[in-house]
């Protein structure tokens, strides 16, 4: 398979329907940006760095679903019906949804091992009321892991799970893939946009420290580049899962970092219900 062919270079892609929307990009800065997740040091802002809105075209990718892949563009939409009853119940999510996702990704990728290690639920109203551990949609362009933190987070999660052959596993190719889906459907407000990974230059990726009480993680903030090609799946339903590749240890031309962001859809009704969604973070190990 040939990599590094931008999706937008393919016949017919330019003619896809689109919305013109604003995405928030990091303004280039000399120092490494920092974001405090749980506690902000006295006298300091919650985050350093500033973001600027940029108007971009976000194309409707529904008619090209069959042409998308995790290795080429870094994202894909699949049909998957979960049997889970309550996505806000952490215990049920871990007991039922984690194994579902591990089975699904094993079948889709041919992986030798898949481990779900984290999840978040998002609902702006619940987040404001501090209910169900919900968080608000992230409306800034980002990627969840960096070339460095993909390895460090994998090592941490494998140790937590008591895996013994960690060094051996990390010698082989592995990736981190988010499984993102609506809880209530269809999505009418704050849909998620995904950037074709082949349109992102490595110089667009800016490491950002995520500071927790007990550790420091690292993600990529993204600076604006007019070459970025954005896509979304309007009216996404709860039986549709969006797979987003956030890291790949292979540096052979396949997609490694698919930047993404929630955005204000100009076609959304002003009284649309807030988006409810869940995302799983998964480690996928290949032979």
Question: Key features?
Answer:
14 strands; 4 helices; alpha+beta; 15% helix; 287 residues; globular; five-stranded mixed β-sheet
In round numbers, the mean pLDDT is 94
Beta content comes to: 25-35%
Q: What is the number of domains?
A: 1
N-to-C SSE string, H for helix and E for strand: EEEEHEHEHHEEEEEEEE
How far apart the termini lie comes to 18 Å
Low-confidence sequence ranges: none
Q: Shape, please?
A: globular
DSSP helix count? 4
Structural class by sheet pairing and helices: alpha+beta
What is the C-alpha radius of gyration, as a whole number of Å? Answer: 18 Å
Share of residues in helices: 10-25%
Strand order of the largest sheet: 1-3-11-8-13
Major sheet size, sense and barrel closure? 5 strands, mixed
For the secondary structure, the number of strands is 14
Explain this structure to me?
There is one protein chain. The protein has 287 residues and is of the alpha+beta class. It has one domain. Helices cover 15% and strands 31% of the residues. It is built from four helices and 14 strands. The strands form three sheets. A five-stranded mixed sheet has the order 1-3-11-8-13, with no helix packed on it. A five-stranded antiparallel sheet has the order 4-12-7-14-5, with helices on both faces. The chain has a four-stranded mixed sheet with strand order 2-9-10-6, with no helix packed on it. A hairpin with a 4-residue loop joins strand 9 and strand 10. The longest helix is centred in the middle third of the chain and has 20 residues. The model has no long low-confidence stretch (mean pLDDT 94).
